[in-house]
């Protein structure tokens, strides 16, 4: 889409405001709005200035001037603003016109460029399955003398005795009992359908939606794959629309991996494949699960580098509350066809050559999608370059329910790190594959690790409410 095409949209849709957005290191979107009457072709050529020192992890106050450079391919109309507003995603540049090396969106684009220069293929396709909860109420506090959280949902298993409904209406969802029930058990069909309508109007191709396994309003909406950066843009759009649509219904949506104790958490299973033009490179009708040797080497790279990858794909302390055995969490670093207990699953149902792909099930939506997708691609490309064979390294295939294996058999299977600090240790020890082609830089890795170490420390030094249950009476 050209700049003129965008200007035509502004005129045709009577747009009043242009919302220029960028994404910080943690995956949070930020925006500055300009009156449509002040936006011209030069705005897209020169960019929009902002203060980089006010964004966590960017620049110091002595070098704070930065520029948002709009991407005309990313525009869509905001469905929530009272005044017609057009959203435009941007890359971050320095004042001298250089791409900012800590800009997550630029890193994603550099990963796509590296794929082509490496001569492997022309495009990498990604499709995340980003699960979330829709709650009716959320409250939390962390202070000197108090620490608690409380969430509630009309569907919650704990509400079978609640009176506030004016007579309890029943049909609550039991723990692990929420996978695709019909109404009235599923109370959120309409809100998910409305979310899908808004997502479609914003340009996403919606494939399906349904209630997920956990009690209390766990949901999933799937949208169609696209290339790496476009998919990351789409995931930012997806989360923005889901958060705000829930708010319009008087509810609150969260992508937090483990908001409830004792039930399934929310993951972000990421489907991936590489094409050369229109030719799928992961397909071989004679291979295991119809996978080519290239696809197997890609899996080898993902599984070999997985401990380091998790610092970028599961970058929160809460991520590792989800990654525990017993809740369908993919903690086992093996691959398998159609097996949801493996970290890498090969979908085999109704798959065509162009639909042949691998699914990395470990990530979650606390990840910055630009960084997570770029890191996964770089790990896979390293596997292709070095011909890392996951079969030779003991990563499978393992076509069994891993959760039902004996302890002796399980001891032979490598697991994901158990904490954010362990994942950060792995990233510090293993990140050369990310530096290839200057996709990530050493400065970025060091800065990112420092920020995440700070988060881990913030959680570690605080008193946990459960410690009162364990130790108050000592």
**CATH homology-level superfamily of the largest domain:** Glutamine synthetase/guanido kinase, catalytic domain
Work out the helix count. Answer: 14
Mean pLDDT, all residues: 94
CATH architecture of the largest domain: 2-Layer Sandwich
Strand content: 15-25%
The profile of the biggest β sheet is:
10 strands, mixed
CATH level-1 class of the largest domain: Alpha Beta
Q: What is the number of domains?
A: 2
Binding site for ATP: 207, 223-225, 271-273, 340, 354
Pfam family, one: Gln-synt_N
Domain GS beta-grasp: 13-97
Subcellular location: Cytoplasm
Topology:
Elements: H1 3-12, E1 17-23, E2 29-35, H2 41-46, E3 48-51, E4 65-70, E5 76-77, E6 85-93, H3 104-117, E7 123-135, E8 137-142, E9 147-152, H4 189-201, E10 206-211, E11 218-223, E12 226-227, H5 228-248, E13 252-254, E14 268-276, E15 279-280, H6 293-304, H7 306-313, H8 319-322, E16 332-337, E17 342-346, E18 358-360, H9 369-386, H10 407-410, H11 420-429, H12 432-435, H13 442-460, H14 465-471
Parallel strand pairs: 1-6, 16-17
Antiparallel strand pairs: 1-2, 3-4, 4-6, 5-6, 7-11, 7-12, 7-13, 7-14, 8-9, 10-11, 14-15, 14-18, 17-18
């Amino acid at each position: 889409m050209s700049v003129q095409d965008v200007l035509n949209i502004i005129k045709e849709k009577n747009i009043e405001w242009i919302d220029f957005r960028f994404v910080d290191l943690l995956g949070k979107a930020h925006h500055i709005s300009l009156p449509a009457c002040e936006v011209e072709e030069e705005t897209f050529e020169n960019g929009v200035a902002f203060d980089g020192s006010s964004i966590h992890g960017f620049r110091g106050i002595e070098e704070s001037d930065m520029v948002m450079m709009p991407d005309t391919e990313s525009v869509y109309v905001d469905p929530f603003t009272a005044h017609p507003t057009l959203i435009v995603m941007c890359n971050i540049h320095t004042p001298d016109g250089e791409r900012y090396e800590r800009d997550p969106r630029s890193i994603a684009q550099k990963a796509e460029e590296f794929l082509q220069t490496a001569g492997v293929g022309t495009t990498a396709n990604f499709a995340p399955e980003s699960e979330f909860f829709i709650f009716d109420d959320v409250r939390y506090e962390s202070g000197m003398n108090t620490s608690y959280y409380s969430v509630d949902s009309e569907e919650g298993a704990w509400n079978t005795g609640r009176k506030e409904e004016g007579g309890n209406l029943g049909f609550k969802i039991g723990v692990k009992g929420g996978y695709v029930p019909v109404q009235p058990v599923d109370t959120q069909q309409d809100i998910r359908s409305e979310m899908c309508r808004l997502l479609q109007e914003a340009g996403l191709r919606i494939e399906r939606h349904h209630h997920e396994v956990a009690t209390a309003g766990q949901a999933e909406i799937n949208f169609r794959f696209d290339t790496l950066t476009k998919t990351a843009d789409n995931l930012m759009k997806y989360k923005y629309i889901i958060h705000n649509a829930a708010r319009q219904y008087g509810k609150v949506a969260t992508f937090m991996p483990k908001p409830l104790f004792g039930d399934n958490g929310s993951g972000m299973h990421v489907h991936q494949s590489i094409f050369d033009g229109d030719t799928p490179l992961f397909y071989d009708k004679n291979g295991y699960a119809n996978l080519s040797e290239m696809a197997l080497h890609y899996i080898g790279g993902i599984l070999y580098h997985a401990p380091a990858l998790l610092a970028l794909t599961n970058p929160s302390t809460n991520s590792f509350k989800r990654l525990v055995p017993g809740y369908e969490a993919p903690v086992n670093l093996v691959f398998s066809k159609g097996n949801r207990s493996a970290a890498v699953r090969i979908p085999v149902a109704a798959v065509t050559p162009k639909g042949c792909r691998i699914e990395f099930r470990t990530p979650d939506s606390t990840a910055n999608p630009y960084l997570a997708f770029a890191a996964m691609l770089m790990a896979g490309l390293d596997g292709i370059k070095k011909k890392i064979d996951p079969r030779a390294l003991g990563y499978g295939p393992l076509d069994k329910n891993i959760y039902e294996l004996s302890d002796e058999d399980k001891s032979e299977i490598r697991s994901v790190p158990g904490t954010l600090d362990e994942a950060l240790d792995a990233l510090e020890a293993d990140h050369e594959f990310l530096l290839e082609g200057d996709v990530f830089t050493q400065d970025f890795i060091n800065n990112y690790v420092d920020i995440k170490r700070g988060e881990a420390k913030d959680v570690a030094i605080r008193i946990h409410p459960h410690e009162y249950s364990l130790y108050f009476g000592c």
